[in-house]
């Protein structure tokens, strides 16, 4: 008899039936889509009580479908049925140290730290288990409390210059290397980004980037939220920043409101700050070390890379930047 398919007895005591991982995954997927226990039981051909037990075990482990899908069969069995398959002998990494590094350096993310961890622990945790255990540690230690900010789809566009630059544009006629400055814009709900490289951060480049970005998105938001940078404001102020006159003319032409983020209020520009950190890791680091014969070639490479990046699924919500943009932001 297969221990995965039947009930077992240990010291005269009946042990919980261990369902196949593929059935567990389907129960978890349908649960997160809002189906009832009766509907799930009919779909996966099992009892309603079995569905309830699987749901309970997943809740106790704080296991979600996107994490479970990346786990191996053995990892899933060990997590949900520790009495039947034993506990993992793999020790946890130093979560407090990892957490502090993530907080101190916005460029770091879990995947980067996991790859670093695996270099010294070749038989260590898989990436999915690494993330799952880290999130479990955050929940247990009280460090996973997050204030969710709901934003109206398509309403706000956050814009800024990325702080980092790259010396990557080569002038073949003079032999000089030019520095690339990166403009970034991101929509408030989907965090769908637009990135363009320029030789400087002057006003004409700032306005050109806005025009190109609106054309790229295929629509106009109601509000544009810039940082208090020199190209956006002539007088940075917490309560009443003065908008650059040319920028104001741009806003009147496109019938949008310009609402600069308040000084020392990071929540006002959280979407673009988050996107900047994400792009510094997955775009700028990817471009680092490459050379381009002109800004046009560089921007073609940027667009191709960003189109690939926006398809990657979110880590803490359903969908991707591209899917949320197409279903929520773009129609709005």
TrEMBL record:
Which Gene Ontology BP terms does the record give?
DNA integration
The transmembrane segments are: none
Integrase catalytic domain location: 149-332
Would you say which domain of life the source belongs to?
Bacteria
> Which PANTHER family does the UniProt record give?
TRANSPOSASE RV3428C-RELATED
Q: Identify the NCBIfam families for this entry.
A: transpos_IS21
Q: What name does this protein carry?
A: IS21 family transposase
Per the UniProt record, the source organism is Desulfosporosinus fructosivorans
